[in-house]
Design a protein that fits this description.
The chain is built from seven helices and two strands, in the order H-H-H-H-H-E-E-H-H. It is mainly alpha-helical.
């Protein structure tokens, strides 16, 4: 029998389950002051530590509004997880840099995420994962199809 649940419902449930599992991991429970968003931002900054990362980069990477990122980064700064450092040549620009505390947290999070990733893909072939990634990217592109709010029909035509 074909599953008739809307794909958005399925994705939202999967996302909740992943979030719940990540938030209940052993490493995560030790870091009570850390939200899931903080963890993703720490990971992004850690994996891009070879270049300057600014608030705008986080907005674009996570598809989050400027006000939300500003609030999250300010809280992370207050928790001692990131520092805003000036950039030579433009006093308005502040790059985001992880603190030593954040690097230690990053190490624990990486271990937990690796275990979660292994669990997620049990019994799923590389080919199936490739198809899943391609379909998910197409869905994200469909949602992010311009500012007008239009959507694409099943045949790829704009409304």
């Amino acid at each position: 029998m074909k599953d008739t649940k809307p794909i958005g419902f399925v994705i939202k449930n999967l996302s909740r389950m992943i979030g719940r599992r990540a938030n209940n991991s052993a490493g995560r429970r030790q870091l009570d002051s850390l939200t899931g968003t903080n963890g993703w931002i720490i990971g992004y900054l850690a994996h891009n530590s070879d270049r300057d990362i600014f608030q705008k980069d986080i907005e674009n990477h996570f598809s989050v509004r400027r006000s939300t990122v500003s609030r999250v980064v300010t809280l992370m700064e207050q928790k001692g997880l990131v520092e805003r450092q000036g950039v030579e040549g433009d006093a308005r620009l502040k790059r985001l840099v992880l603190t030593e505390k954040a690097w230690q947290i990053h190490s624990e999070i990486e271990n937990d995420l690796e275990a979660l990733e292994e669990r997620l893909v049990i019994g799923i072939s590389d080919e199936e994962l490739d198809v899943f990634r391609k379909v998910a990217v197409k869905m994200m592109e469909n949602i992010d199809d311009g500012e007008c709010g239009c959507h694409r029909g099943r045949r790829g035509k704009k409304c």
